[in-house]
Write a structure and sequence with these properties.
By secondary structure, this protein is an all-alpha fold. The chain has one domain. The protein contains 5 helices and no strands. It has helices at about 5-30, 40-65, 70-95, 105, 110-125. α1 (about 5-30) packs antiparallel against α2, α1 (about 5-30) packs across α5 and α2 runs antiparallel to α3 (about 70-95). The protein is flat.
Length: about 130
């Protein structure tokens, strides 16, 4: 197996930093509205981890797909997307069914990577 491209590591760290910042903000909001308990923290940890892992695995998949021909790359991307979405669905199901996770604190962090990506142009130093 080839090593992980430094760009993937760099971008995953960027996503992880934003997920951490937004997770702290979400925890503060739950605390301010008076519904914070340990289930909020556990739900946040579960889905934040899944969110960052999803982004990292997507980067690895793209790296592998670039080394293949067009049809094999397309198949690799589709299979990866299927498994990553399955992972996120399992995360939500766990958050919804197990009493140790607060549902909203499990679902909301799954959108944090999208937010981080939308802020990326503001912090891109190449412009």
């Amino acid at each position: 197996m080839s090593s992980v491209d430094p760009t993937i590591v760099k971008e995953t760290k960027y996503i992880a930093c934003w997920v951490l910042i937004l997770s702290i903000l979400m925890q503060a909001i739950f605390l301010v509205i008076g519904v914070w308990d340990y289930t909020v923290l556990l739900g946040n940890l579960l889905s934040s981890s899944a969110c960052v892992l999803n982004f990292f695995l997507m980067g690895i998949t793209v790296q592998k797909a670039l080394q293949k021909d067009k049809d094999a790359a397309k198949t690799t991307i589709k299979v990866s997307q299927l498994y990553r979405m399955l992972m996120l669905m399992v995360t939500v199901v766990l958050g919804a069914t197990l009493p140790c996770f607060q549902l909203w604190a499990t679902v909301i962090p799954l959108f944090f990577s999208r937010i981080a990506i939308s802020f990326r142009p503001l912090f891109d130093k190449k412009q």
